[in-house]
């Protein structure tokens, strides 16, 4: 892990090493939570008709951690547990790029908050991707 901020409830990190998805999932488990929802984003080969070979993620780490913490504490204040970890560095096809997990008392909240968080991470957190595609290099990629 590059940088980590952790407290008794949420866990956020920017990681230079491969994500240990099982270990991150384990951080969500607690007796008060009946629903755990996770999202794991991986490097995909095709986006429409564009073929990708690899992605390189970079981040403004200190600001990224502040933004991840803000997002986590917003959901945590509603009684959930949150784990958000994003990779940086060079990633190959199928490598895990991001893990977002929410544990809540009920599944509906866990689903809703997990979707909110991954969308917010993509929109608000200063993490950039450089896609190495067959035809050219793209910054930010295609959604």
UniProtKB/TrEMBL annotation:
Signal sequence, renumbered to the chain: none
Any Pfam family hit: MoaE
Ranges in coiled-coil conformation: none
Name of this chain's protein: Molybdenum cofactor biosynthesis protein MoaE
Origin species: Loigolactobacillus binensis
């Amino acid at each position: 892990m590059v940088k980590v901020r952790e407290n008794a409830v949420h866990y956020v990190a920017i990681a230079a090493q491969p994500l240990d998805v099982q270990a991150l999932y384990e951080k969500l488990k607690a007796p008060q939570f009946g629903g755990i929802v996770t999202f794991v984003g991986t490097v995909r080969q095709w986006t429409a008709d564009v073929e990708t070979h690899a992605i390189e993620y970079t981040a403004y780490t200190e600001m990224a951690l502040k933004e991840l913490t803000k997002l986590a504490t917003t959901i945590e204040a509603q009684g959930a547990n949150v784990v958000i970890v994003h990779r940086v560095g060079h990633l190959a096809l199928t490598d895990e790029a991001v893990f977002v997990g929410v544990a809540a008392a009920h599944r509906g909240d866990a689903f809703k908050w997990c979707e909110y968080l991954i969308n917010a991470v993509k929109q608000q957190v200063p993490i950039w991707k450089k896609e190495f595609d067959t035809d050219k290099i793209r910054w930010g990629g295609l959604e």
